[in-house]
Amino acid sequence: MSARILKGKEFHPNFDNTSLGEFLFERCEKFADRICQIDADLDQSETYSSVKTRTTRVAVNLQKKGITSTDVVCSCTNNSLDNSIPVIAALYLGAKVVNLDPTLSARNTQHLLNLVTPRIIFVEEESLQFIEKCINEAKLSCEIIVFGKSTKYGTFANMTLPCGEEKTFKPSKTDIDDTAIMFFSSGTTGLPKAICHSHRSFLQMVEITYNSGYDSRLLLHFTTFYWVSGLIMLGRTFVDGTTRVFARTMEGEKTLRMIEKYKLTSLFVAPIYTYQLTNVPNPERYDLSSFRYLLTGGTPMSTDQYKKLTQLFPKVQILFAYGMTEVGILTVFHPEDDKHLIDTKVGSCGKVASRTLLKIVNPDNEEILGPNQEGEVRGKSGAIMKGYYRNDSAGCFDDDGFIKTGDIGYYDDDGCVYVIERMKEMFKYRSWHIVPSSIEAVILEHPDVEETVVFGLPRGAEGEVPAACVVLKDGCTIDKEEIEKFVAERVSDREKLRGGVIFVESLPKTPTGKLIRNEARKIAIKSL
What we know:
It is a single chain. The chain is of the alpha/beta class. It is 28% helix and 26% strand. The strands form five sheets. It has a nine-stranded mixed β-sheet with strand order 3-2-12-11-13-14-15-16-17, with helices on both faces. An eight-stranded mixed β-sheet has the order 8-7-6-4-5-9-10-21. A hairpin with a 5-residue loop joins β22 and β23. α1 (20-30) packs antiparallel against α2 (48-64) and α7 packs across α8 (228-240). It is globular and about 75 Å long.
C-alpha cells in the first residue's frame, strides 16, 4: 500500500486580509435588514442592524474603560440574544475574547480565570455569585458586568444605551495574526489549556466550515461560546447573512417542535443527544419537511443509532465531521460531492476538508501509512492554532507542522477517514489493544440502555480488563449479568466485560456531551 498525504479541495480565500472585527462589522452593515439570531426558548429575534447597533455601543463603552488589543475580555453565560454582543464588540477593538460555560466546576473555572486573567468579565445574573467566588479564590482583579440587574456592578443594559460616538465608530486596525479568540481544551484527560486562534486562523476555520456545503439558512445549535462549535456557528451565519437559531437545553420533542416552528434547515448536535430525537413518541406529528442536514461529530455513533436516525429523518443527510479545537474541521462529507458515499460509508467521518492536509502516521517511528493502516491522525490547514496561551505547545506539532491529534484512525481506498479512538483512551488486555468505543457501540444496541462508557480496570499481569458504566432507560430494571451476556455474544473474547457493569444514574460529561472517561473509571473503582 502506498503511503500518502490526503489533500482537501482548494477554494479561493475571501477573508485572508481582514480582522474578525472588520469582517463582523461589515457583514452587519451588508445584511442589515435580515434576521441574525433567534432565541428559540423565548421566541425572540434580532436583525443584523440591531446587532451592529448594540455591539457598537458596547465597543464604545469598552474603549472608554481602556480596553485595547492587549486585554482579555471574558464572558460567562448561557445562550441568549445578548451573549454574542460583548464578544463581537471586543473583537471590534482587537481584544482577545474568551468564554466560560456556567456549568463548569469551580475548580476548572478558577484555573481558567488564572490562566487568561481577564480585564473584564460579562456574567449572567444566575452565575454572578459563582463567578464572584471564583474570582476571589483565584485572587484576580477583574471588572464584572452583569447581564441583568445589579446594584453592585455595572450592567450590560447600561452599556447598550445610545451614545454620541456610535455614529462614527469603526473597528480598530488589528494585526490579523494576533490572537483573537481563545478556547479551552475539553479537559477530558486533565485541566484544560487555552487554545489561541488568530483573526486569520479563525476566519479560515469559518470558511472551511462554509465550504462544507450544507444549507445553513436556519441552523439550530445548543452549545455555548465556550465551545468552538458555538462560535463557528456564529461566524458561519455572518458569511452570507443567514440565521442562527439557538436554545439552552437539548430535548427531543422540543427540538422537533423548533424544527417545525422555525422551518429549520440544519441542526448541530453531539451524537449522544441524538438518542433524545429517536426516543420521541409519534414523531410523525411534526412537519419536518424543511429539515435537510443533521451535523454531528466529536464522539462515535453506533450503526444502530445511525439507522434509527435515517428512519426518523428519511430526507435528511447525516453529516459527520471530525476535527479538534486546535485546528477546526479536518474531515467531513460534502452533501453534494460525496452524496454517493454518505449512506454507504457508515462510521466514516468524511473526506478531508477543503484547504486541509491529513496523514496517518505510525507514532513510534513517524512513518506515513497507506490506506487501511491504523495510526495517529495528523492534520494541517490555515485554521491551525497559534499555540497554547502561556503554555508551551511545541510538542503538539510534528516536524512538518502537522498537529498531532492523539486519535487513532485510518482512511480507506476511497479516501474516507475513520477515527477509532483516542490513543490515551485505548488500553491493553493481555497485550491486545482494546478500543472502548467499539464495545460502547455494542452496549448501546441493547434496547434498555440509554448511555454507557467503557474503560479499563487494572487486573495484574493481564493488564486492564474492559468494564462499563451504564445508564438504563427510564423504567428498565435489567441486571448486570444480562448486559455482560449481551456483549459477550457480540464481541471477541478479549472484549468481554470482565471488569463488570456498574449501573449509574448519569455519566460524567463535558457540556457538549463528550464523556469524561477517566471520571467514569474513578466512579467504577470506588464502587468495587
